[in-house]
Design goal:
The complex is a heterodimer of chains A (343) and B (239). Chain A is an all-alpha fold and 343 residues long. Chain A has helices at 8-27, 35-42, 50-84, 97-109, 111-114, 126-150, 154-178, 181-192, 200-219, 221-227, 231-236, 241-263, 269-280, 286-308, 319-338. The longest helix of chain A is centred in the first third of the chain and has 35 residues, at 50-84. The longest helix of chain B is centred in the C-terminal third of the chain and has 18 residues, at 157-174. In chain B, helix 4 runs antiparallel to helix 5 (127-140). Chain B has 2 domains: 1-62 and 145-239, Rossmann fold (3-Layer(aba) Sandwich); 64-142, no CATH class. With 239 residues, chain B is of the alpha/beta class. In chain B, the strands form 3 sheets. A 6-stranded mixed beta sheet of chain B has the order 4-5-6-1-7-8, sandwiched between helices. A two-stranded antiparallel sheet of chain B has the order 2-3. Chain B has a two-stranded antiparallel ribbon with strand order 9-10. Chain B has helices spanning 27-34, 57-61, 79-85, 99-111, 127-140, 157-174, 185-191, 208-213; strands spanning 16-21, 46-47, 50-51, 64-67, 145-148, 177-181, 194-198, 205-206, 226-229, 234-237. The chains are: A mainly alpha (343), B alpha/beta (239). The interface between A and B is large, with 33 and 40 residues.
C-alpha cells in the first residue's frame, strides 16, 4: 500500500454496488416493476405496459439520476470543505451553507411578494431559483470563511456555523410571517427536500453545475493535498493560497448551492460520506478520494431514496428525514469512537 | 515596538546554523520572514544574491523547504503520503510521482531510517518520529536551504541530540544550508557551524567557539539568575 496503489479493486467494487443500487432504486416504488421489465424499458425494447415505460422514463430515471448527482455533489462539497477548513465536522449543512441556500430560495419565493414593486418581472423560474440559492450559499460561505480566518478553533467555527444557520432561519421565519399562504407552502415543500420533482431540463442544470464543480475539484487536487499539511506548508510547496482557496470555494458553493436549489436542503450527506469513504479507502490523497466520495455519496443517496419511497406503499417520506436518521448517528459514532476528530 | 534590529548574517552551503535567544526576542519571526511567511518589515533577504521577493512561490518552493512548529492539519495522512507531498513543486498537475521522484523519496527514507513507519498514519507516531518524518519531507523537497522552527521541542535529551546530529550530517553530506531556531543553546554550541545570538543589542553571528571567546553568551540571560561557564560551554544557575 505504500507505493502508489491504484485502488482499482476498490473502484470496481464501488461501481458495481452503485449500479446495483441504481437498478434497485428504479425497480422499487409505489408500483413494483420487475427487474427484467425495468431493464427492457431502459434498453429501449418496448414493453406492452405503457404506464410502466412512462413511470420509468418520466419519473424514476430522472429521480435516480438526481439522487446520484445530489449524493455525489453534496459529498464532494463536504470533502472539499473538510480539507479547506481543516475540520472534520465541516460540511455544507453544518456550516450554514445550506441555510444560505435556503435564505436565497426563501427570499426569491417569498420575498418577491414584499418587493413586488421592484421585481415585477416575477420570472421566478428554475434558473432564477438556482441562481438565488447559489448566491445565498456563496454569501454564507464567504462569511464563514472570513470568520474562520479569525478563529482557529474547530468548535468555535462550528458554533459560528450554527449561529449563521439560526440567523438565516430567523430571516426566513420573518419572511414567512408576511408572505402569502401558497408561497409559504411552496417554500416549506422545497425545504423538506425532494429528489422526485425535477424535470429533465432542471436535471440538466444540476448536472452542468455538478460537472463544473467536479472539474474545479479535479484541477485543485494538488492544492487540496497540500492543504492537508496546513496553509503554511502548502505555501512553502509553491501553492498560490488565495487562488486555490477561491477555486475550492467556488466549487463548493456551486455544488451545494445548485443542488440545494432544486432538491432542497439535504442534511448530513456532505458531512458523513467523506468519513464513511475514508473508512473504506484508507488514503487521504484527493486523487483517489474525489472519485471515491462521488461513488459512495451517489450510492448512499440511492439507498436513502429507495427507503424514502417506502416500496409498495403510496406514501413517500421526506428525503431529509432519512438522511438525518442515517447521518447523525455517523457523526456521533465518529465523535465517540475517535475522541480526537481526525479528517 | 522594535524588539531587535540590525540583524545581519550570511550562510554558506553545507552549514548548520542556529538562531538562539530568550523567549519573545523574535527567533520565530525572523525565521518566518526568511521563509516568506510574513512580510519583511525592513532590510533585505537574498538567496544566491537575488532578492527574496523576485522569486515566485514555485521558485521559492525549490529553494527553501520548512519544518514548522504548527502541527500538520491532517494527522490522517500516512507517512508515505506525507513524504510524497514533498515532491509537489516538481510533479505534474495531478501530483503523479515520476521514477526520479520515487528514488529521491526512497533515498531520504533510507537516510532517516523511516522504513518501519511508512504505512503508519501520522497520529500513530511519537513526537520524535513525526519530527523525523517532517525533516525527511523537507529533504525530499530537495531545496538548497532548510529552515526549521524549534525542531527539538517536546523531545527528550536523547531525541534532541539525535535530531540535531541528523541535521548536522545532512548539512555536511548533502551540502545544504540548514538554519533552525532553538532553546538548546548548549547542544547547539557543540553541534552547529554557526550561531546567531538574538539579544536585541549586538545580535552576534559567528562560530560557537568564537562567540564563547567574545563572551557573547555571558549576557544572554539576566546575569543575576544564570551565568555562562565558558570552560564547559554550559549555563549555571546562580544560587
Amino acid at each position: 500500500m505504500t507505493n502508489q496503489s491504484t485502488y482499482s479493486f476498490h473502484f470496481i467494487g464501488l461501481l458495481i454496488v452503485l449500479l446495483i443500487c441504481f437498478v434497485i432504486n428504479i425497480c422499487l416504488g409505489s408500483v413494483t416493476i420487475s427487474f427484467i421489465d425495468t431493464l427492457k424499458i431502459l434498453f429501449g425494447s418496448v414493453s406492452e405496459n405503457d404506464s410502466n415505460t412512462y413511470i420509468i422514463w418520466q419519473y424514476r430515471l430522472p429521480k435516480a439520476i438526481t439522487a446520484i448527482l445530489v449524493g455525489g455533489g453534496l459529498s464532494l462539497s463536504g470533502l472539499l470543505m473538510q480539507t479547506l477548513f481543516r475540520n472534520p465536522l465541516a460540511g455544507p449543512y453544518v456550516l450554514g451553507i445550506s441555510s444560505g441556500a435556503s435564505l436565497g430560495a426563501a427570499l426569491l419565493i417569498m420575498g418577491t411578494s414584499l418587493f413586488s414593486g421592484a421585481l415585477t418581472f416575477s420570472a421566478f423560474n428554475d434558473i432564477t431559483l438556482a441562481i438565488a440559492s447559489s448566491l445565498g450559499s456563496f454569501f454564507v460561505l464567504s462569511l464563514v470563511l472570513v470568520v474562520a480566518a479569525k478563529v482557529k478553533d474547530t468548535m468555535a467555527l462550528l458554533i459560528i456555523g450554527l449561529m449563521f444557520g439560526s440567523i438565516t432561519a430567523a430571516i426566513v421565519s420573518v419572511l414567512s410571517y408576511f408572505t402569502k399562504a401558497e408561497k409559504l407552502q411552496r417554500y416549506i415543500f422545497w425545504s423538506f427536500g425532494s429528489l422526485g420533482n425535477l424535470s429533465w431540463v432542471q436535471l440538466l442544470i444540476v448536472a452542468l453545475c455538478t460537472m463544473i464543480g467536479i472539474f474545479l475539484s479535479i484541477i485543485s487536487i494538488k492544492p487540496l493535498n497540500a492543504f492537508l499539511l496546513g496553509e503554511n506548508y502548502a505555501k512553502s510547496l509553491g501553492i498560490g493560497l488565495q487562488k486555490s482557496r477561491y477555486i475550492i470555494i467556488v466549487a463548493t458553493g456551486l455544488l451545494a448551492g445548485s443542488i440545494t436549489a432544486f432538491a432542497g436542503p439535504i442534511a448530513f450527506v456532505g458531512l458523513a460520506v467523506p468519513h464513511i469513504t475514508k473508512q473504506l479507502i484508507h488514503t487521504t490523497d484527493h486523487k483517489i478520494q474525489i472519485p471515491a466520495v462521488l461513488c459512495c455519496g451517489a450510492t448512499l443517496m440511492l439507498i436513502c431514496d429507495t427507503i424514502a419511497q417506502l416500496p409498495g406503499s403510496v406514501s413517500v417520506l421526506p428525503i431529509n428525514a432519512i438522511t438525518s436518521i442515517l447521518g447523525a448517528p455517523v457523526v456521533i459514532w465518529l465523535l465517540v469512537r475517535k475522541r480526537k476528530m481526525i479528517f | 515596538m522594535v524588539i531587535a534590529s540590525a540583524i545581519s548574517f550570511q550562510l554558506k552551503k553545507g552549514e548548520l546554523a542556529a538562531i538562539v535567544g530568550i523567549n519573545g526576542i523574535g527567533k520565530s519571526t525572523l525565521l518566518k520572514t526568511l521563509g516568506r511567511f510574513q512580510p519583511i518589515i525592513s532590510g533585505s533577504i537574498k538567496i544566491e544574491g537575488k532578492e527574496l521577493s523576485t522569486y515566485d512561490y514555485l521558485q521559492m518552493a525549490s529553494k527553501i523547504s520548512v519544518v514548522l512548529t504548527e502541527s500538520i492539519a491532517s494527522k490522517n495522512l500516512s507517512v508515505y503520503e506525507l513524504l510524497a507531498l514533498g515532491r509537489q513543486p516538481y510533479t505534474n498537475w495531478l501530483g503523479k510521482l515520476a521514477d526520479t521522484d520515487v528514488s529521491i523519496i526512497n533515498k531520504s527514507i533510507a537516510l532517516l531510517e523511516l522504513e518501519p513507519f511508512l504505512d503508519k498514519k501520522c497520529f500513530q507516531l511519537s513526537d520524535g518520529q513525526l519530527q523525523r518524518v517532517l525533516i525527511a519531507r523537507a529533504l525530499i523537497q530537495d531545496t538548497d536551504i532548510i529552515l526549521l522552527d524549534e525542531p527539538t521541542t517536546h523531545l527528550d535529551l536523547y531525541h534532541k541530540v539525535q535530531i540535531l546530529k541528523l541535521l548536522k550530517s545532512i548539512a555536511h553530506e548533502t551540502n545544504k544550508t540548514i538554519l533552525f531556531t532553538s532553546h538548546e543553546i548548549e547542544l547547539a554550541i557543540q553541534l552547529c557551524d554557526k550561531m546567531l545570538i538574538l539579544d536585541g543589542r549586538e545580535n552576534a553571528f559567528n562560530e560557537p567557539c568564537k562567540l564563547i571567546e567574545n563572551k557573547n553568551f555571558d549576557t544572554l540571560f539576566p546575569t543575576d539568575t544564570i551565568s555562562f561557564d565558558s570552560n564547559t560551554g554550559s549555563f549555571r544557575i546562580k544560587k
